[in-house]
Amino acid sequence: MKKVFILALLTLSTMIQAQNKVENILLKHDNEPIDYTKVNESIIQEAVAKVIKLSDEKIKKIVAVKTQTIPNTLTAYDDLQYELTDLSIKISLIQSTFSNESIRNAAYAESEKLSVYGSGLGLNEPLYKALKKFSTNKKIVLNDKQKKYLSEAIVSFEKSGMKLSTADRKPLLALNKKLIELGNAFDKNIAESKDSLTFSESELKGIDAESLQSWKHPNGTYVIPVNNTNVTKISENAENSNTRKVFGLRYNNRAYPQNITVLDSLLYYRNTYAKKLGFSSYAAYSVVDKMAAKPENVWAFENDLIQKLTPLVTEEVQTLKAFKKQVNPTESGEFLPSDFAYYSKKMLNDKYKLDKDEVKKYFEMNATLAGMFNVYESLLGIEIKAVTNMPVWDSKVKTYEIWCEGKKAGSFYLDLFPRANKYSHFACFPMSQYLKKGTTEVLPVAALVCNFPEGTANEPSLLPHQNVVTMFHEFGHLVHWLLGHPAIASQNAFGLKGDFIEAPSQFLENWCWEYDALKLFAKHYKTGETLPKELFDKMKQTQQVNIGSQYIRQVSLGLTDFTYEDKYEETKQKGILKVFKEISLLNQLPFDDNNHMICSFTHLNGYGANYYGYLWSKVYAQDMFSLFKKNGVMDAATGIKYRKEILEKGSTAQEIDMVEKFLGRKSNSDAFTESLGIKK
Questions:
Q1: What does the angle CA 131 – CA 136 – CA 139 come to, to the nearest 5 degrees?
Q2: Helix (H, G, I), strand (E, B) or coil at 582
Q3: DSSP string covering 494-549, please?
Q4: Cis check: omega of the bond before 257, within 30 degrees of 0
C-alpha cells in the first residue's frame, strides 16, 4: 500500500512538473492550431510577460556580441521582431473577435503593454548601435534581401529618433505610450458601440419581409441593430426618406461623442511626436518611408484626382436629382446624402433595368465562397481544402488550408457574420507568421473577420455584388499573407509599404466584373441557373455609373485623414468637425452638422496619414490587371507569374521593382484612368 502511495506521489509530482513546463498556447511555434476556447485573461497576461522577458534577453545577447555574424546579429534581430509581432497579431484577433468582455479587455490592456514595449525598441541605443556596426562590417557579405532588411531596420530606428540627442529622445517614450493608449481607446469605442433603432412597419416600407421578420418584436415594433449590413439595407430600400436619414445618421455617429475627445488628443500627440523627431508634420513622418515619400506628392496625387473627378460628380448628382424629381415629383426638399444609395439603386432598376435584389440571388454565401476559391485556385495554381480539426473562437467560424505545388502553404479561418462586440467592418487578420529555422518550418495563419449579411430560417445569406467585391478583396490580403514564405520572417506580405499594400488585393477585385470568372460560380440559389449573360451585361454596363461619386468619397476620406495629419494647426483652429465638413462637400451634397462619421472612421487610427494609399495602390492594381486583359483574365500562366512575382515575394523586394518585373515594362496610370471612365 505504502509503495503504491509513494508511486502515486511520484506520478503526481511528475504531472505537476510537466504541467508547469507546458508552454503558453499563444507562444507556440508549430503547425498545431491554437485552441482558442482555452484562451483566458491569465494566458494573455502570461504570454506578454514572457515575451517581454525573452526579448530583453535576446537584446542583451545581440548587444554583447563581439564578433558579429549574420546569425548572431541580423537573424537574431529578425527573431526578436518575430516573437513580438507574432504574439501581437494573435492578441489583436482576440480583442477584435471574442465575445467574452473580460478576455477582450485583457487583450486590449496587454496589446497596449506589448505595443509600448515594441515601440520602445526603436529608442534602444545599444541595439541600434549594434545594427549600425553590423552594417559597416565589410567582411560580412549580404544578399539583396538581407541588405534591404538591414537598411529598413536602421531607417526605422532613425525615424524613431535615434538621430536625436539623448535628451531630445527622452520625451519620445512617453509620447509613444500616449499614442498607443489613445489608438486602443479609439478602436475599442468603435468595436463596443451598441445601438439600435425602433421603427413602425409603415416607416420600413420597401424592406424585404425576411428582414422585417427578423427585426420584429412582440409589441409590433421593429428593432434594428445599427451595423454595416443593416445600414446598407435601409439606405438602399427604405422608401421613407426620414427612416433612411435617421438610420444613416445613427450609423455615422457610432462611438460619438467619446471618440471626438480621443481623436482630438490623438492628433495633438501625433503632431507633437513628429515635431520632436524633426518632421514638419505627422504626415511627413508617416510617408517618409512610403512610396509617396513626401506630403507634397500625396497632395498632388489627391488634387489631380479632384480635378479629374469633379466634373463626373457634378453630372452624376444632377442626374440623380433629376431622377428623384421624375419618380417622386411631390417630394420636396433638397437631395440628401441619405438619398444617394436609394435613388442610385432605383435608377439602376429603372434606367438600366438592373435589379440589384435579383443579382444577389446569384451570390449565395456558400456558393460564392466555393466559387471564389475556384477562381483563386485556377488563377494562382493553388488548392483550398476545408478542414475540421481547427478549434474556433465562435461556432460559426469555418476553417481551411491552402496548398501550393503539392505542399501545405498555410491555414485560415473565416469569421463572416456580425455579432456583439466584434470588429465591425471587413479585414484580414494575420494570426501567425511564417518562420523557418533549420529544418523546422512554421506555416502562416490568417483570418477574415467580416460582417456580411447573415441568412434567416427561410432564406440563406445572399450577397449584394458589392459584398462579393469586398470578399474577393479581403481574401486577396489573406492569400498574400499565406503564400509568402520569406527567409527573413519580418519580410512578410504585410511588411510592404503602406501605400502599396492594398494593390495586390484591389487587383483581385477585377474578377468580380469578368463573366469568365463569375459564370464559374454565380448560380441562382433556388434554381441553380448560371448568372445569365444578359444580366451580367447590365451589371457591366453600370460598373461606371456614379463612379465619380464613389471615388470622390475615397478622395475625401483620404484628404480628411491627410489634412488632420499634415495641417494640424489649421485643423486645430477650425476644429476637426469643420475640416471634415469642408472636405465632405467634395461630394456636392449637403452636409448634416450632426454627422460625426470621423468617430467611427477606424482608419484614422491604424492608417494615420495613409488612407490616400487605397487610391495610390489602385493605380498599380489596375496596371497589373491590364496584363490579364491582354493575356486573358483566366490565363493560368499569367496568374502563376503574378503569384511568384508579387504574392510570394512578400516585402523582400522594392514594390515598384516587383510590379515592373511582373509587367515587363515601366508602370503607368493609364489603366487606372480608364477604369474611372476618364478619357485622356
A1: 110
A2: helix
A3: GGS-TTTTTHHHHHHHGGGG-HHHHTTT-B-TTT-PBPPHHHHHHHHHTTTTTHHH
A4: yes
* Superfamily designation of domain 258-351+547-611: Neurolysin, domain 3 (1.10.1370.10)
Rounded to an integer, what distance in angstroms lies between the CA atom of residue 312 and that of residue 430?
38
Taking 90 as the threshold, does the pLDDT of residue 606 lie above it?
Answer: no
Rounded CA separation 677/680 (Å)? 10
Average pLDDT score over residue span 478-490: 97
Of all residues in the chain, the percent with pLDDT exceeding 90 is 91
Could you read off the pLDDT of 188-224 as tens digits, one per residue?
999 899 899 999 999 999 999 989 999 999 999 999 9
- Whether the CB-CB separation of 453 and 364 falls below 8 Å is answered with no
Q: Are 432 and 86 in contact (CB under 8 A)?
A: yes
Contacts (Cβ under 8 Å, ≥6 apart) of 528: none
Question: What is the grid cell recorded at 227?
Answer: 451595423
Cα 568 from Cα 570, distance rounded (Å) = 5
Mean pLDDT on 459-473: 95
Strand partners, 144: none
Question: Which amino acid is it at 302?
Answer: E
pTM of the model: 0.92
| Res. 581: pLDDT tops 80 | yes
Residue 424 has pLDDT above 80, yes or no: yes
Q: What is the DSSP string of 256-299?
A: TTHHHHHHHHHHHHHHHHHHHTT-SSHHHHHHTTSSS-SHHHHH
Tell which residue, 400, 454, 409, has the closest CA to residue 436.
Answer: 409
412 DSSP β-pair partners: 400, 446
Q: What is the residue-averaged pLDDT of the chain?
A: 94
Name the H helices within 32-165. 41-64, 76-97, 101-120, 125-135, 144-157
Enter the C-alpha cell of residue 154. Answer: 536602421
Three state DSSP letters for 429-468: EEEECCEEECCEEECCEEEEECCCCCCCCCCCCECCHHHH
Q: Would you state the pLDDT for residue 42?
A: 97
Using pLDDT thresholds of 50, 70 and 90, give the confidence band for residue 17.
Answer: very low
Instruction: Evaluate the CA torsion angle 118, 124, 126, 131 in order and state its sign.
Output: positive
- Say how far apart CA 515 and CA 537 lie, in whole Å: 9
Q: Confirm or reject CATH 3.30.1370.20 for domain 24-163, answering yes or no.
A: no
Helix axes 613-631, 547-566, angle to 10 degrees: 140
Write the CATH number of the domain with boundaries 365-543+614-675: 1.10.1370.40
Residue 283: all three cell numbers together: 504626415
Which is nearest to 251 in space by CA: 385, 379, 444, 418? 418
User: In sequence order, what are the residues at sequence separation of 6 or more whose Cβ sits closer than 8 angstroms to the Cβ of residue 313?
Assistant: 548, 549, 552, 586, 587, 588
Query: Cell 440589384, residue?
Result: 356
* 4 pLDDT more than 50: no
The CA radius of gyration of the chain, in Å to the nearest whole number, is 26
Residue 224's beta-bridge partner residues?
197
Give me the pLDDT at residue 1, please. 39
Q: Could you tell me if 393 and 98 are in contact, meaning their C-beta atoms sit under 8 angstroms apart?
A: yes
Residue 680: per-residue pLDDT: 64
Same topology between domain 24-163 and domain 365-543+614-675: no
Provide the residue ranges of all domains of the chain, joining segments of one domain with +. 24-163, 194-252, 258-351+547-611, 365-543+614-675
Q: What are phi and psi of 379, to 5 degrees?
A: -70, -45
Q: Are strands 407-415 and 445-449 parallel, antiparallel or unpaired?
A: parallel
